[in-house]
Write a structure and sequence with these properties.
Shape of chain A: globular
Oligomer: heterodimer
Structural class of chain A: alpha+beta
Largest interface: A-B, 60 and 45 residues
Number of helices of chain B: 29
CATH architecture of the largest domain in chain A: Roll
Number of strands of chain A: 13
Number of helices of chain A: 8
Strand content of chain B: 5-15%
Structural class of chain B: alpha+beta
Distance between the termini of chain B: 81 Å
CATH class of the largest domain in chain A: Alpha Beta
Largest sheet of chain A: 7 strands, antiparallel
Order of helices and strands of chain A: EEEEEHHHHEHEHEEEEHEEH
Number of domains of chain A: 2
Shape of chain B: globular
Strand content of chain A: 35-45%
Number of domains of chain B: 3
Helix content of chain B: 40-55%
Helix content of chain A: 10-25%
């Protein structure tokens, strides 16, 4: 499966902005199940500086600066990604969650050490007794970890209402838990918080969904913007993705761009401007399959 | 008075000291036997020779010196945001050469260890994969900053400057209480303490053979210079401060001046093309090294998530690009985390293959079950600190809490154990402190400073010793009324007399440059000029009024008074309704409030407080003498100013007291103006200070005339005299017109006479000349907007027919004069805005890009 992802951010200012500096997680990362075929970021007005590096979590991150006065800024990120979905492990075959949850990373295992950044508190997700007790009914003693996480995911999907107007990026996880509504970012943070409160490493995945579903399948929630889901660490099996917003295991319709401890690590686009007065933001996202012929043309 | 001397020596027996340490802790000066410890002998002998009376006299002088130098420490929680004078005790702490070298060896090892740990954590992270450090202390620790990972630092230098707080246990052993690795404060105060002490006790200082501090600062400067990625011969180095509201701002300004660096705030810097630049009036100048006093989080609002915007957006990017060195490097604050302490011994063994030479006070991280259990079951003996950031809350001395508070603390620890560290409470040593002319014991903590030097570290021979506010508490805090001491390390060999204050003889490239000015400093100097002049205008007007009130008996004798009162009330928005002298003299309380209440906007006190604030922001731009003059303004002397929280209690004043005060203030402000005119280089700093003064003087003059002479009245003669006196033009007037007092000559002298330094025309000409000096595009043929405003005003004055202006209508109103004055007055804000737009517009604040709302 090959997809073309286009993400356009447009900012309009009531007063001129004399300069801006930005940081973008708008390029797809390579993972075992996806390859980035092509990726570019276009900025208008054209930036004086544009450079890329890898962030701490291995995601490509771009820095750019516009140093001339401007009244609007358009950032257009386009990429083509090939997905190679892998079979999901059989839940019953995964190890019991309480066997491994509280384990320290095994010193000899590089994978375990790599999982450790995702076990603790982060900017938007702090472990909490309330989060643990919300998750607990799914985590019965001895239950295989994937089985338990799938049940936890199903419960979040069933008990929380998707509501774009209810929260902002700054809404704390505990408030989301209390009011039982939010968007994909909130559900991801909530699930990460529940998992970490039980001792399980979990990370935040930022990416995109196919905009128009294949015939016969429902349109997924969160397809009109960048999407967020969760990945948790299962010793022996590695990282397993899970999408609480859609109660699904991401397969051939989730395109991964970046992961981190939470939204703060992988925010798609942030910036600091000088001047500008009032700001208006527009975001447009489209994800479409590229058939073989079109790809050959390109 | 010898009988009262605490430090008198008897002729034959051992020296008697009226000093009794408390039982328990180690005393720095006296052994348990009561004998003087050897390193104190020289000092005590010398002090005894001086005698207590002389010591007190000199201490008084030293405190005066501290006030004059303006050494302060900002107190938080002070509603009026006032600075507290720096507290220095006249008895230094004495350290023997042998002990100093043992401490130095231990701390150098510690600094080397820290640099290795920082390099590892920001690189391969071997200490994590080897299990030498729990992963949570990195990844669950907000002080660990992922954007700072993987940077190739210039010279691979991860730590330039380090400070350790040391305490001494009852058995005499030295322990580390805390570490400062991101932006250690106190070295400047240590230096100032030394300067004051060596001036106060020159002969004692010399005879005691004390190690000098200057070599340390020379090594530090050398480290800063060689840290530069480019321009190592002559790098541009800046000291980045959060600003005057920071508690140690005095020190930032002081060190910047001493080390010869430019003091900047975040808004003075900008990142362009992956490089850091300083914004100067003449353009952008690349910066090579930043000595920062900002915490990691505040340094770059783009990448380091500081909610405040005091930092420099893009700084992390410039660091990644390798174009700037920051001391200490971004991310080094992580090393301060108290939770790391229990693991240092293991890290030292692994990374250096050595045992720790100076150990930390025993500490337990509650994130580990054993640690938490130990802390909880020994809580009353513990000092509780935040595990990750010592600045998050002040250390809690659990033993000093009530039982209920201690239970609550235990509950907090159980709820979020990973955020707490328990540290064994050390019964800190004591040293004598002069209190009410007596020596009394106080507990102390010594802060010692290290600078990277070559491939190792150099230790300051001395340091900043801080003492508790009483012998009953172990909490050492300048915030809570503690004091400080100079720290004298006895030299083991001949003392070097090198001093940075007197640069070594070397051939210097002669230059007339150095005149460029940070835009923000220009802005502050402009406002300093305005406030100085505003204060002077207000004082002169008020003095004119009070003189008339005290000299004359009734209102009939002073028909001009209501007009002057109107002018005052229009200028200050105070004294409304005080249209008659009766109402005014009845409110001496009102007068006192006007002179002393800094919270009342429009009051003289408020203007002086603003003046003081702005002057504080440009301390590094004005001379010590100018600063001294401003420090002597009356508001800085009153007890109400020093009193932090109490109700405002103004001195009760008679009219003649007030008059005396105003006379002194006029003289002080005039001295400031005179010194500025006489001693400031005619560079950009002078331009902005002068333009501010001229602009404000113009505004004051026009406001004064508009509220007094636009309407004809029967007090014109006395009013003319009063106005001349307020505008300081009486002498000239009298020479020209003798005793004839009327409006036209007054207006000519105050508005149009280009030779009168108090006239409006004179101000406009001066502003025009300053504008010509400032950087401008020489290829532009037409005048800039601000030059046009000046020219328009000046032309109006030159073409003015004053006798025509003062014609009255049937009601005695002077429409043409009113119109002319209004037009001239309206031009002033336009001029001020034009200057701001042209020279200071890039001072606008940074903001975050908006979040895409609702489309997540």
């Amino acid at each position: 499966m090959i997809y073309r992802i286009t993400h356009v951010n447009t900012y309009r200012y009531s007063e001129p902005v004399t300069s801006c500096q930005n940081l973008a997680h708008l390029s797809p990362r390579e993972t075992p199940r996806q390859t980035s075929l092509q990726s570019q970021i276009l900025v208008q007005p054209s930036p004086a500086v544009m450079s890329s590096r890898q962030d701490y979590f291995g995601n490509p991150v771009s820095y750019f600066a516009v140093q001339e006065p401007h009244r609007s800024l358009t950032v257009t990120a386009t990429s083509q990604v090939q997905l190679r979905p892998e079979p999901t492990p059989e839940p019953a075959l995964t190890p019991p969650w309480d066997d491994l949850a509280c384990l320290r990373p095994r010193p000899g295992s590089p994978e375990d050490v790599e999982a450790s950044p995702f076990r603790f508190d982060s900017q938007y997700v702090e472990r909490h007794a309330d989060l643990a007790s919300y998750a607990r009914p799914s985590f019965l003693p001895g239950r295989p970890i994937l089985d338990a996480v799938l049940d936890f995911t199903r419960r979040i999907h069933a008990e929380f209402r998707y509501d774009k107007t209810a929260t902002t990026t700054a809404t704390p996880v505990l408030e989301v838990l209390r009011h039982r509504h939010g968007v994909c970012q909130d559900f991801a943070h909530l699930q990460i918080g529940g998992l970490r409160s039980l001792g399980i490493s979990a990370r935040y995945v930022s990416g995109y969904l196919l905009t128009t579903p294949p015939p016969g399948l429902p349109r997924l929630l969160g397809a009109d913007a960048s999407h967020a889901w969760v990945s948790f660490y299962c010793p022996g099996f590695g990282w397993i993705d899970i999408d609480p917003t859609n109660n699904a295991i991401p397969g051939d319709r989730h395109i991964t761009f970046a992961w981190g401890r939470d939204y703060d690590d992988v925010c798609p686009l942030k910036g600091v401007i000088l001047g500008g007065g009032k700001q208006v933001v527009d975001v447009g996202v489209s994800v479409v399959p590229v058939d073989a012929a079109e790809k050959d043309d390109a | 008075m010898a009988g009262n001397d605490n430090l008198s020596a008897t002729s034959d027996g051992p020296r008697e000291l009226a000093y009794r340490p408390v039982v328990g802790p180690h005393d720095e000066m006296l052994a348990e036997s009561g004998a003087l410890r050897p390193q104190w002998r020289g000092l005590c002998g010398a002090l005894a020779d001086l005698g207590m009376a002389e010591l007190n006299r000199r201490w008084e002088e030293a405190r005066q010196l501290i006030r004059e130098h303006g050494v302060t420490y900002n107190l938080h929680g002070d509603p009026r945001g006032l600075d507290r004078p720096w507290q220095l005790d006249p008895v230094p702490l004495m350290i023997s050469a042998a002990e100093a070298s043992a401490i130095a060896a231990g701390l150098v090892q510690r600094a080397r260890l820290f640099e290795k740990v920082l390099a590892d954590i920001h690189g391969r992270q071997d200490v994590l994969s080897r299990g030498l450090l729990p992963a949570e202390l990195v990844f669950g620790n907000p002080s660990f900053l992922p954007p700072c990972h993987g940077v190739a630092l210039p010279g691979n230098r991860h730590l330039h400057f380090y400070a350790a707080d040391l305490g001494r246990a009852p058995d005499g052993s030295i322990w580390v209480l805390g570490d400062r690795t991101q932006a250690p404060s106190g070295a400047g105060y240590a230096l100032e303490n030394r300067i004051v002490m060596s001036r106060m006790l020159p002969e004692v200082f010399r005879d005691c053979q004390v190690d000098r501090l200057a070599l340390f600062f020379r090594a530090f400067r050398e480290t800063m210079r060689t840290a530069a990625p480019y321009n190592r011969d002559n790098p541009r180095i800046v000291l980045l401060t959060p600003g005057p509201s920071n508690e140690t701002y005095f020190e930032h300004a002081y060190l910047a001046r001493y080390l010869g660096y430019t003091l900047v705030e975040g808004a003075d810097l900008t990142v362009r093309d992956n490089r850091v630049y300083q914004k100067l009036l003449g353009g952008l100048q690349p910066v090579d090294v930043i000595l920062r006093r900002l915490d990691d989080h505040d340094c770059d609002p783009l990448e380091l998530r500081g909610s405040s915007l005091v930092g420099v957006p893009g700084l992390v990017q410039a660091v990644h690009a390798g174009n700037v060195a920051i001391a200490n490097p971004l991310g080094s604050g992580w090393m301060e985390s108290p939770a790391l302490v229990p693991y240092l011994a293991g890290l030292c063994k692994h990374l250096l293959g050595e045992d720790l030479k100076i150990r930390s006070v025993a500490s337990w991280w509650c994130g580990e079950a054993d640690g938490r259990d130990h802390v909880l079951s020994n809580l009353e003996r513990m000092v509780i600190k935040h595990a990750f950031s010592p600045a998050r809350f002040e250390p809690i001395f659990a033993g000093e809490l009530s039982a209920a508070d201690r239970t609550a603390l235990a509950a907090s620890i159980c709820a979020r154990p990973n955020e707490y560290v328990g540290q064994e409470q050390l019964n800190l040593s004591t040293a004598p402190v002069l209190v009410d002319e007596q020596l009394q014991p106080r507990h102390l903590v010594m802060r010692v400073f290290l600078t990277a030097s070559g491939d190792s570290f150099a230790v300051m021979p001395g340091g900043l010793t801080r003492v508790t506010a009483s012998a009953q508490t172990l909490v050492v805090s300048m915030q809570q009324g503690g004091g400080s001491k100079d720290t004298w390390v006895l030299a083991s060999g001949p003392v070097s007399t090198f001093s940075l204050l007197q640069p070594a003889v070397q051939t210097v490239e002669l230059t007339r440059g150095g005149g460029d000015l940070p835009s923000r400093a220009a802005d502050n100097l402009f406002w300093l000029g305005r406030y100085v002049e505003r204060a002077e205008g207000t004082v002169r007007l008020l003095r004119g009024i009070l003189v008339r009130l005290t000299e004359k008996s009734g209102l009939a004798d002073v028909p001009e008074l209501p007009h002057l009162m109107r002018a005052l009330s229009q200028q200050t928005q105070l004294f409304a309704g005080a249209g008659s002298s009766a109402a005014f003299s009845a409110s001496e309380a009102e007068l006192a409030a006007f002179l002393y209440d800094v919270r009342r906007s429009g009051s003289l006190a408020a203007t002086l407080a603003e003046l003081d604030r702005v002057a504080g922001m440009v301390r590094d731009r004005i001379s010590m003498d100018m600063w001294r003059i401003l420090s002597s303004l009356y508001l800085n002397e009153t007890p109400t100013h020093a009193e932090a929280n109490g109700p405002l209690d103004f001195p009760s004043l008679t009219l003649s007291d007030a008059l005396e005060l105003l006379n002194r203030t006029v003289q002080t402000l005039a001295a400031f103006g005179g010194l500025a005119a006489d001693s400031m280089t005619r560079g950009y700093a002078w331009c902005f200070l002068d333009m501010g003064r001229r602009l404000e003087r113009s505004a004051h003059l026009l406001s004064l005339l508009r509220s007094t002479v636009v309407q004809a009245n029967d007090a014109e003669g006395p009013l003319v005299e009063a106005l001349l006196e307020i505008a300081d033009s009486w002498m000239t007037y009298r020479r020209r017109y003798l005793h004839h007092r009327s409006l036209a000559p007054l207006l000519d002298l105050l508005l149009a006479d280009e030779n009168n330094p108090r006239s409006l025309a004179f101000q406009l000409i001066a502003i025009g000349e300053q504008l010509d000096r400032l950087p401008h595009d020489p290829t532009l043929a037409r005048r800039t907007p601000e030059q046009r405003v000046v020219l328009a005003g000046l032309t109006a004055l030159r073409l003015a027919d004053i006798n025509d202006w003062i014609a009255t209508d049937a009601t005695g109103y002077r429409p043409r004069l009113a119109e002319a004055l209004t037009r001239l007055a309206d031009d002033l804000p336009v001029l001020s805005d034009a200057i701001t737009l042209r020279f200071l517009s890039h001072l606008q604040p940074s903001r975050h890009l908006a979040e895409p709302g609702g489309s997540r």
